[in-house]
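The material for today's practical consists of a large collection of protein records. A record pairs a protein's sequence with a compact description of its fold. Instead of coordinates, the fold is spelled out as a row of discrete tokens. We will come back to this pairing of sequence and fold again and again. Here is such a record, shown just as it appears in the course material.
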Amino acid sequence: MYDKIQVSVGHKAIFGYGISFEEIISIISRYPAFQWLDLAAKIEGFLTVKDRKILNPQIFLAQNLLPPSTIRRLCNHSANSDVCFTLGQLNYLRKLAIAYGRNNDQDTELPMQFADISKALLSVQDLHNRFDVAQGDRFESFCQFIIRNGYLNSNPDPINLFFRARKMYIDLAQKIIFRDGKSFCDFFKEITHLEIERALSLNFALVNPFFQNKEKLLFETTIINPRTFFHELLVNPTVGNSIIDTMIIDFVCAKEIIMKELADNPEIAPLGYNLDIFRKTPLIRLDNGNLVCANLSCLLQKITQNLIWVPKIIMNGLRKQESDELVNRLTDYRGILFGEYIMQLFTIMKEKNQKIDFFYVDPDMTEDHEEVGDSLLYQDGQLVIIEAKSRQFNESFKYTGDWGKDSHFFKELINKASKQIQCAAEKIKKGQVAALPFQPQEIKRIYPVILTYEQIPMHAKMQRFVRQKTQEYGYLIDGIFAPIEVIYIGDLELFMDCSDSLTLIELLEQKNSSDSHASETNFNNFLTNYLGNHEIISNGWQLDQFKHFTDEIVDPNLIFKN
């Protein structure tokens, strides 16, 4: 019922034999690199931006990209044989295309043969699968598999990303002083020469081609000509480029980096998982100046969730100490905004459903003048203690799943957060917190929740692993604590759509009272399953938020020429 894993098949599984690395390179080198990059971008857009008109995107893609003989073999392979296009496969193909695709005829398109597309895609999937096979099947290896697959295949949730960026970096940022007596909005304009509202609207226009009708998208180019892309808008191209330029890597530079990566034994390196080169610069500038999207998920995150890092363009002229200071300030500022956004969501929850109480404990309300959780929810003897974590994790951790690559994963996310929750619970139970709407002795159950800014893979066994680690640290062992829950902010936004029908505490109670599979599954899986089984109708909160985004950001700022 929960946490299904589908393994994608490659050329060897379908045809019974693999294709050598040399032959793969031979196929890729027949065509200009930009054609492979454009093809990968179109497939990724198709897989990432959902279209309800097409029920099975895998079948649709196969029918449009693969020869009939391959489709027949694919259909006879297994029940899961329609899963044949993956984001790891596309990332691997992109890297091979940049390294070995033709680069001396950027304006010349060659007719791509279905047989070549099929062989390239399926054989690259074999290469991508090899890394997982080499890792073994131990429980720890499986958890690492879940991490790297989760980071690679997490739903970028583009609509939520845009309205969350509006709330955090425009609405809330106006109220909080960033530095030198300025708001972040002032600081952003000073660096980029653009109002942040205009920048966000231009960013929305930048990814809008991926939101178009899928049947058209598959056969139309996604390559951008920056000289004409905004030509219908009233915007100075130089000013518009101040945003785009922060997201670009030149093709030659990308090739140099990827060739170095390929030299480290491509058969066992995590090439398909490694998004390091695309994370900060998700657009590749071709020799003719045009831009191709190297990774849609990275682009979406850069222009919304990580919009705060755009001013880093000024760091090139800073000394290391000054640059480090700016990074720390931006990081702290993002944490403040994230906490404010969470409190705003909980305030709305309470307005929608009076059965639940929400409150934030100011440090001055405690005897030691220290914070007690980032937010607290209470209902009928049940208490939720929220710790918000805005930290984003190292790329090497994300593409290997090896937490040894990022000591902060367990140190910051699990150890520190669980300790903070336990300390908050002890203060509350000992009566050291003033003005609470309940008596400490009334508490029957405490739900510890870590709320994250970045999506963190929490497949069932990963959830179990985190809970085991929490106990090893010696925290949240008392029977009053429910198992710790790691929830991504996007999933909390999804819950807002049903917050008038049930409270978050009622949902957590259901999640931890039915069976172990429900308890250990990630919050999103349980929520969507619960909503479907109970036929709860959405109150339209998310749609309203996106309408606010279009009404307040897109429409006033994307001004078209007459």
The first helix runs from residue 11 to 15. The chain is about 50% helix and 5% strand. Residues 508 and 514 are 11 Å apart (CA to CA). The mean pLDDT is 85.
